[in-house]
UniProtKB/TrEMBL annotation:
Belongs to the ATPase B chain family. This is ATP synthase subunit b. HAMAP family: ATP_synth_b_bprime. Keywords: ATP synthesis, Cell membrane, CF(0), Coiled coil, Hydrogen ion transport, Ion transport, Membrane, Transmembrane, Transmembrane helix, Transport. It comes from Candidatus Roizmanbacteria bacterium GW2011_GWC2_37_13. The keyword Coiled coil applies.
Length: 161
């Protein structure tokens, strides 16, 4: 091999250097680099898993939000309907109360009108009796005796009652 220009000692030294370099690189550079790459790969997988988990949680939250929104709308609608129902019941009871009070006022007014009518009738009757008595007293005073005047006056009063 010397003819070719290859020196065995240098070749062995080169091989030993290469093996030493190989073991040093493997132990101090390749192994830490490999574990670093594996760690980064694991971190990336963990990030992907967390991202997927977060997306799933987000979707679950969207579904819950929608269901809660529908439930709130349903409850709101139910409350509005109940409020309308209560308002209608209150309106009806107020109308009934107003009608009842109006009937009471009408009845009181009828009674009052009737009382006033009776009082007016009595007053007219009394005025007619007084007028009749006055007519009999003044008109027939000279022509009738006292006894006849009393009888006529009593007949007039009986007829008025």
């Amino acid at each position: 091999m010397e003819n070719l220009g290859i020196d065995i000692k240098i070749m062995v030294a080169q091989a030993i250097n290469f093996l030493l370099f190989f073991f040093i690189v493997k132990k101090f550079i390749a192994k830490p680099f490999s574990s670093f790459l594996e760690e980064e790969h694991n971190k990336e997988k963990e990030k992907q898993r967390l991202l997927e988990s977060a997306k799933k949680i987000e979707e679950d939250l969207k579904v819950k939000k929608e269901s809660m929104k529908k439930e709130v709308q349903k409850e709101t609608k139910m409350i509005m309907e109940e409020t309308k129902k209560n308002a209608l019941e209150l309106k009806e009871s107020l109308l009934e109360e107003a009608k009842r009070e109006a009937e009471e006022v009408k009845e009181k007014m009828r009674n009052q009108v009737e009382e006033e009518k009776q009082a007016l009738y009595k007053e007219v009757k009394n005025k007619a009796a007084e007028l009749s008595f006055e007519i009999v007293t003044r008109g027939l005073k000279d022509s009738l005796d006292e006894e006849t005047q009393k009888r006529i006056t009593q007949k007039i009063l009986k007829n008025l009652n």
